[in-house]
Structure to design on (146 residues):
């Protein structure tokens, strides 16, 4: 993908993910969201099962699967809808922004190149300094090429 289109897409996704960043996505309850929400709403397994045309055992199986990270998105959505809820789904960086994550490989390559040259120059007593600025410039150059 051309760099200008990649940058545009990166900016669009960054804007889309802002609400998730603000929410700080709380850790899932130990027994899972489905069970926690169902209990908080005062619904029984039978009631949720009825609204899904499924047996209470199926709802219980969905709750267990969700708590163990084995549920499909399709099933998660169906159970959530049966309780009058919706699933909100996103993939977000573990830390930092998408832009920082996208730049990480280019920055590593730039640092490797600049530090190698700086080391050679230092051995010849010709090091010029300003390494961080040169790494930033090289990172931008690498990102433009890709």
């Amino acid at each position: 993908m051309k760099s200008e289109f990649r940058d545009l897409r990166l900016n669009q996704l960054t804007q889309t993910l802002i609400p998730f960043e603000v929410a700080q996505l709380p850790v899932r309850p130990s027994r899972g969201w489905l069970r926690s929400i169902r209990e908080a709403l005062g619904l029984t397994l039978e009631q949720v099962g009825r609204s899904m045309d499924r047996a209470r055992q199926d709802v219980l199986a969905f709750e267990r699967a969700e708590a163990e990270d084995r549920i499909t998105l399709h099933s998660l959505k169906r159970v959530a809808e049966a309780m009058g809820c919706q699933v909100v789904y996103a993939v977000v960086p573990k830390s930092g922004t998408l832009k920082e994550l996208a730049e990480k490989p280019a920055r590593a390559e730039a640092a490797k190149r600049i530090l190698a040259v700086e080391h050679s120059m230092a051995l010849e007593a010709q090091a010029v300094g300003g390494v961080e600025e040169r790494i930033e410039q090289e990172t931008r150059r690498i990102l433009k090429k890709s």
In short: The CA atoms of residues 18 and 145 lie 28 Å apart. Helices lie at 3-23, 33-41, 45-52, 56-67, 73-82, 98-123, 131-145. The chain has a mean pLDDT of 85.
